[in-house]
Design a protein that fits this description.
Elements lengths: L3 H13 L8 E9 L2 E9 L4 E8 L6 E8 L2 E8 L2 E11 L4 E8 L4 E13 L4
Antiparallel strand pairs: 1-2, 1-8, 2-3, 3-4, 4-5, 5-6, 6-7, 7-8
């Protein structure tokens, strides 16, 4: 029992200090754009530059993303055929490890998105 208490205290401290999007790490999120289920994988470099992709669970075709982290806000450009097709503009909620905001297509449609952190791992972009 004495060994469990320090471990629980360490685990609680680690979780309380977790960052939803950590620099020099991959973060995977699951949730929805409107009613469509999606998965996003984002790498954040040491300068806050974001690179990754996302897919609709129904189709599983990866769509490239590039953007920037700015405090508790972020933006991501979505690319199709090397052209910007849409944008994610969102906020980070550190209390519940989630991100949310608006996905906007180049055709001026705005749809709410809400995603929960599913996993994180350190490493490099490569």
């Amino acid at each position: 029992m004495r060994k469990i208490i320090p471990f629980i205290a360490f685990l609680a401290a680690t979780l309380c200090n977790a960052e939803t999007i950590k620099k020099e790490s991959w973060s995977a999120f699951e949730g929805t754009i409107g009613k469509s289920e999606i998965v996003i994988n984002i790498y954040c470099d040491s300068d806050g530059k974001l690179t990754g992709d996302y897919c609709y669970k129904k189709y599983e075709n990866r769509i490239p993303l590039k953007g920037k982290l700015n405090g508790d806000s972020f933006f991501l450009d979505e690319f199709i055929n090397n052209k910007i097709n849409a944008k994610f503009n969102g906020k980070i909620n550190e209390e519940n490890n989630s991100i949310s905001g608006k996905w906007s297509s180049t055709k001026n449609s705005d749809i709410a998105f809400s995603l929960k952190l599913a996993s994180q791992t350190g490493g490099s972009l490569e």
